[in-house]
Amino acid sequence: MNHGQDDPKEEHEAIRQQTRPLPAGPRSDPRSDAPSQQPAAAPRLPPPRRGADWMFGGVYGTVLASGLLAALNQEGDAFTPFYDASWVLVTACTAGLAHGYSHHMTSHQAGSAAHHWRVLSRALWNEWPMIAATLPTVLLLVVAGLTDWDAYGATAVGLGLNTALLFAWGSFVALRVGYRIGPAVLMGLADATIGLAIIVANAVIK
Predict the structure, then answer these.
(1) What is the CA radius of gyration of the chain?
(2) To pair with 12 at 20 to 30 A between CA atoms, which of 5, 25, 85, 139?
(3) Following CA atoms 173, 124, 87, 81 in sequence, which dihedral angle do they give, to the nearest 10 degrees?
(4) Distance CA 154, CA 164 (A)
(5) Measured between alpha carbons, how far is residue 9 from residues 14, 18, 21 in Å?
(6) How many helices (H) and strands (E) does the chain have?
(7) What are 47-70's pLDDT values in tens digits?
(8) Stated pTM of the model
């Protein structure tokens, strides 16, 4: 027997061991590496306004009514209280629509057309405090027209009433958001200062 040469059988067995495929491990599901697809959350309607929010709208509407009352009554012109009352109401409604629409556009969300209309209607409805705050001035002008009240008296009473309402709005809002009575009264006085400024401006300009 020739011991200097390798046995062909042993060489063949070594080659077969080297070329044997490795045992396959558990296959990983290719879908497990893909990012999980979460269902998109449905767009939500804006929540209704909280108490403090609609009271801020009341402050804005009261200031708007005071400015319109002072501007519509011109010295030397005939006093037209029904005309003035209608324009105060129309202006308040227009301002509410514009403010609600602009708020809707700045908070735009993805969704269907029906959802957009629901969100827009909610945003417009949330502007009702601004319109409601002008109603005391509107009613005052209607009463002035029914009782033949003079323009000076109606304007003076209207501006004074709105100044008192601004004080009440400011104090009430401050109390609702957590202020104590003293700071709340000071905030009411700050709001009433706006009404006083309109009164002074009306006197100076006219």
Answers:
(1) 38
(2) 25
(3) -50
(4) 15
(5) 9, 14, 20
(6) 9, 0
(7) 555 545 667 788 889 999 999 999
(8) 0.67
